[in-house]
Amino acid sequence: MNGHDFSLAGAPLVALGSGALYWPAEGLLCISDLHLGKAERRARLGTGHLPPYETQDTLTRLEDDLHLTEATTVICLGDSFDDRAAAQALREEEKLWIAALQAGRRWVWIEGNHDPGPVELGGTHLAELPLPPLTFRHIARPGQSGEISGHYHPKTTLRTRGRAITRPAFLIDADRVIMPAYGTYTGGLRSDDRAFTGLMRDEAIAVLTGPVPHAVPLPRR
Amino acid sequence: MTTLPPLFTNWFAARGWHIHPHQQAMLDRADAPAQLLIAPTGGGKTLAGFLPTLVDLAESDHPGLHTLYISPLKALAADIKRNLTMPVSEMGLPIRIDDRTGDTPASRKKRQRADPPHILLTTPESLALLTSYEDAARTFAGLKRVVIDEIHALAESKRGDQLMLALSRLQALCPNLRRVGLSATVEDPAAIARLLACHPDPCDILQADPGPEPDIAMLTTEERPPWAGGGAAYAIPAVLEQVRRHRTTLIFHNTRAQAEIFFHNLWLANEESLPIGIHHGSLDRVQRERVEAAMQQGLLRAIVCTGSLDLGIDWGDVDLVIQVGAPKNVKRLVQRIGRANHNYNAPSKALLVPANRFEVVECQAALQAVRDHDLDGEPRGRGPQDVLCQHILIRACSGPFSASDLYAEVTTAGAYADLTREEFDACLDFCATGGYALKAYDQWQRLKQTDGLWHLRDPRSARLIRMNIGTIQDSDLLKVRMQRSRGGKPLGEVEEAFAASLTQGDTFLIGGEIVRYEGLREMTVEVSRDRGRQPKIAVFGGTKFATSTQLSQRILSLLNGGDWSALPAHTADWLRLQTEMSRLPKSGELLIESFPHEGREHACIYGFAGRNAQQTLGLILTKRMEELGLHPMGFVSTDYATLIWGLDPLTDPGPLFDMAALRDGLDRWLAGNQLMKRTFRASATIAGLIQRNTPSAKKSGRQATFSSDILYDTLAKYDPDHLLLQITRTEAMRGLIDFGRIEEMIARIDGRIDLLRLPRVTPFAAPLFLEQGRTPVEGAAQERLLAEETERLMAAAGLST
User: Which pLDDT does position B522 carry in this prediction?
Assistant: First the structure.
């Protein structure tokens, strides 16, 4: 499996190049910030007609990751839908597709700031999920440990021989993991942004997504 | 022959002027539906364009707008206002003149719409905005003439297309509208006439007396040019000597970065402290205006500049043009020279300064071409459809329309005369629903039909459309400011890619100052003043022209002609050195040099196809090399060669240049590359898929740009026949990709490839190492590099597993 192995609070985890997090011992796959239905929301708000394929694209990648890991538990770590109306406006085929992915699996939707409250799709809806030794929530809380969260859409730029390569990245230290955004059409926040300074330890690393994940010390300002 | 009214002849006489033949001719034919005047600077173009208007307004009352004047530059509109006000007030004519651009205060704009002046001076974008208002018909009621200045410049870009579409709207509102175009020297006046006319009306072409032949030569210098590089620093003493000998000298450069470096070095040698300024498109507007004002008052002895000064503002006392770096095409050079020496009857003076020894050959070829009156130029493509989409949206803002009527209207614009109804409908569908194969937006259409007429579904969306009118692309730029707690002095702009490569402490040049990078705050590059250090080179944006086909051919002939007597000794020496170490490229075959350098293998391919085609060649070849497992890492191109570097040497070029394979793979290979994505971003912005300006961005000052790369990838995967991808392909094939020239080159060499294996860099290949704009190859090599680098970093931080 193409992934970066590490452990958090003693739990062995794998950061996949696709942006998903895998917990082999639990057969658990975690993805964050899918923002499904972003194109529909934009059209509704009158800011333009983005190509309406992002849900299809995101679900395709998710399906690939599920086949790869054979995960039996899935945690969507918040902002799974761009807003609740977008969740309802998903096409029938897409809703059925989600249902198909959910079949035979424990599926948890963690609440995000874009999609607070339950949506009419299968699975469990929670504000956060403790699974000792780890806790899954949408936004990181300073001072916590064993925490997996999303929300910030972190990305990291690496300079090598005069070229700058920017990729969504996992931010990892001894206390927590901040997940990259998994959805198509998600932007990103630079990992040397001040928002991360208070959250991540000095020895934190960033794991760049891509065909092969690459780990680097977390770039600081 | 129309005689001027006595008021006018008296005014002319009082100034000691006579009416020029072309001014008289334009007056005689003022009723023609369209007239194109080709005249050099100082030839009384403005008056030629306006005389019919002034005469008409003098002889009869006219309520409201009579004549519209369009120029590419806001500054020019202001200039013309001044120039026109003079005769109008001196003759006591009751004519109101006003200008309207992005800089006009809102109160004045409001007044202009409510009570328009007789003559309105404006820009293409402001005109498009005016046509977008619901009361457009009232604003333009009574309009009789439109005068388009510097039409040759507008014709070269999408601004011209947007303008002519706006004109098609005006013509529908005012069927008797007459059009006038004012142009500099061009190679194909008929082409411009076709753009100007209301299809299928004819257009008169008038050629004014072109004036005396330009006085153009190569600058002779004590120092010899280096055999590589683009700075021309060697020529500075000679340039300063010329500046001393003339009133005002303009020193042109091909890129902004070169202008900055030259300006910096010029000042280091400027012992007499001659007042010399710098002007280019990345500098802050206030700075540019200061330089322009000083220039017009004759306070500057020289200005180091780029094409930013080509248009518009009066060159006043300029009596010498120096072109540093080989001119990429002859037409632009001739137009530029034509503006020097304001005095109509004295020859314009110009000197060419090659930056390196190869450029000496290029300059020599250019000199010959100028003397032969052999102007170059690419034929124009069809009307771009992204501009048409924006036009449809603008039209919708002003009121409901029928598709058939609008189709008939836009096809009166010359560039869109052959637009098919299907193509129009596809653009309309894009505007209405996004035009996707997947019908997802029926509920949220931007445009919808009611009783057979199309209109905005939500009238409030007009605001967003109006905020994004225009075709000028200035994305990827970040503002540069002096660091201060509350926003320091703005210096200009740099490319985002350049800013991303900076770390704190790096220094670069901007506006002639060396500044130190302090950090990035809110999409602004913050810097502090830094003295006395070697600056890093700034990579500015700006148009990159390719050496024209004609000029490239002349250069090859010159090289192989054997007669290098016209070339300076140092250049002939350099060519001889190239012949000894390798050999000279020849027209009927393709020379490839292969050599090692600094731990990498290099192949230099001398196609002479112009920089765009050479860049495409680099792309296609490196893709092929990647597939063949040759580990290419990157390439860079100039107008005459492409240099590819990688981990393995090139030993068998034959299969790489198989035309069938090249053509077959072109679509596939281009699918993911940066050129296409950049072109896509521009078209997507113009067509309205992505908005550059939004109300929230205006408030926060932050750009809310959606990543167009993701949109491109998504479309390529799920909707490959989408309108925007078709537009991108067409644009890219013509412009940046220039595949036609690769085909021409391959046909020319007909399989004759000469691969030379050499022990080191050759004189001809050396300049490519200093070229900006290296394109990295994303492939196995990149992953390998990333792996190396991350290992190194982790080890250094003590974090290796």
Answer: 65
In the listed set B348, B371, B394, which residue is the last one of a domain according to the structure? B371
- By DSSP bridging, strand A214-217 and strand B34-38 are unpaired
How many CB pairs (< 8 A) connect A and B? 107
Q: Which of B419, B447, B452 is nearest to B435 (CA)?
A: B447
Judged by CB atoms closer than 8 Å, whether chains meet at A53 and B461 is answered as no
**What average pLDDT does range B582-599 have in this prediction?**
90
Domain count, chain B: 5
Strand partners, A167: A156
Compute the distance between CA of residue B315 and CA of residue B300 in angstroms, rounded to an integer.
12
At B618 the pLDDT is 87
Query: pTM value?
Result: 0.82
* Cα B260 from Cα B233, distance rounded (Å): 12
In contact, A194 and A182? CB cutoff 8 Å:
no
Q: For residue B137, give its domain range.
A: 6-207
- Tell me if A17 is assigned to some domain: yes
DSSP E strands: which ranges in B506-599? 507-510, 513-521, 524-529, 590-597
What's the distance, Cα to Cα, between the start and end of chain B in Å? 92
Q: What is the largest CA-CA distance in chain B?
A: 94
Residue B633 lies inside a defined structural domain of this protein: yes
Q: Which of A51, A166, A203 sits opposite B436 (nearest CB)?
A: A51
Tell me whether the omega of the peptide bond preceding residue A133 falls within 30 degrees of 0, making it cis: yes
Please report whether residue B769 resides in a domain: yes
Say if A150 falls within a structural domain.
yes
H helices, E strands: number in chain B:
30, 26
CATH value at residue A210: 3.60.21
Q: Complex ipTM, two decimals?
A: 0.88
What is the residue range of A178's domain? 3-215
Q: Strands A147-149, A176-178: parallel, antiparallel or unpaired by DSSP?
A: parallel
Residue from B439, B498, B681, B714 to probe the interface with A (highest A Cβ count within 10 Å):
B714
Residue carrying the six token digits 């388009």: B148
Cα gap B442→A52, rounded to integer Å: 12
Residues A148 and A32: their CA atoms lie apart, in Å, by 10
SS3 B204: strand
- In a 13 Å sphere around the CA of B98, the CA atoms on its Cβ side amount to 19
Tell me which residue of B547, B544, B555 sits closest to B357, measured CA to CA.
Answer: B555
Q: What's residue B592's pLDDT?
A: 95
B702-705 CB contacts, 8 Å cutoff, 24+ apart: B702/B522, B702/B523, B703/B523, B705/B475
Q: Of A81, A80, A63, A59, whose CA–CA distance to A71 is shortest? A: A63
Return the residue in A49, A158, A172, A212 with the most chain B beta carbons within 10 A, the one to mutate for interface testing.
A49
Report the half-sphere exposure of A26 (CA within 13 A, side-chain side): 19
A93–chain B nearest CA distance, Å? 12
Q: Tell me whether A194 touches chain B (CB under 8 Å).
A: no
